[in-house]
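Hi everyone,

Forwarding the result from last night's run.
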Amino acid sequence: MPEVELVSRALAAHCLGRKVVSAKLLRPGLAPETTPVTFARRLNGGKFERISRRGKHILLEFDRRYALLAHLRMTGRFQLLPPGYPLPAHTPAFFKIDDGRRLIFTDQRHFGMMRLVEADKIHHARELKSLAPEPFSPEFSDDYLVETLRSTTRTLKEALLDQTKVSGLGNIYAAEAMFLAGVNPSLSAFRLSRARVARLRTAILEVLRASILHGSTLNVDPENLEQSYYGGGYHGKWHVYNREGEPCSRCDSAIKRTVHGARSTYYCQKCQR
C-alpha cells in the first residue's frame, strides 16, 4: 500500500487538471473487458479530475462518465515521458496528455490490470467492494481486528496478507509489523489475545506510516514515479525482512525464515514467541 499511495500522489501532482488527448490500449489483455476502440473512445478528451488509492488499486477519475481502475501487481510502472521519447518495451497502454507528455504504463511480466468502470460506481467495483477497511480509517479499530482474526483458522501471517481482512499489507510490512508487535507469524490468528491484537494494530500503523513518510521526502522523478520507496530503498534497515541468519536487532538471536502460503516469512524466534 505505501508504494501505491506514493505513486497515486505523484500522479495527482503531475496529472490533475490535464486533458487526455489520446488514450491507447496496445495490449488488450491489460484491460480484457474493454476493446482498444472503446478504451480510446471513453477516455479521449477526458480531464484527470481525481486520482486516489483504495487498497493496492489506483483510481483515475475523469470529468466524464468513466474512471480507470489500475493495479500495478508485480511489475506495473507509471512513467511520464517528454515529447519524442521512444516508448519503452512492454508498454501495454499510454495516454498522450495536453502538455505534450505521455503517461506510460509499462508491465514487463504482464501481471498488471486496468478496468474501465462508471465513475459514480467505482467504489462498488468488484475489486474494491470486498476490501477490508483502510488501515488509517476509524473502521480499522482494535474491535474490528479482534473480530476479524477470531473468524479465521489460518496462520496470523496468512490472515494479514488477506486483503479482505487487512487492506494494504504486503509481505515486507506484515513481517515488520509482527516483529514490532512481538507476535509469532505461525500462530493461528484466532488465538491472538486482545492485548496482542491491539499491539499488532499499532505496529501495522507504525510501519505503514513510516514507509509513507520516508517516500514522501524523496524527490519524484516523473520518468520513474515508483522511485525506490520504502520497499526498495530501506534495504539494510529492516528488523527481520530478508535477514535470515543475521542477528536480531533486539536480542542478537539469528533471524529465522519460514514459509506461509508460498511466501517467505522472517521472524525472531525469541522476540516473537
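The CA atoms of residues 125 and 265 lie 31 Å apart.

Cheers,
N.
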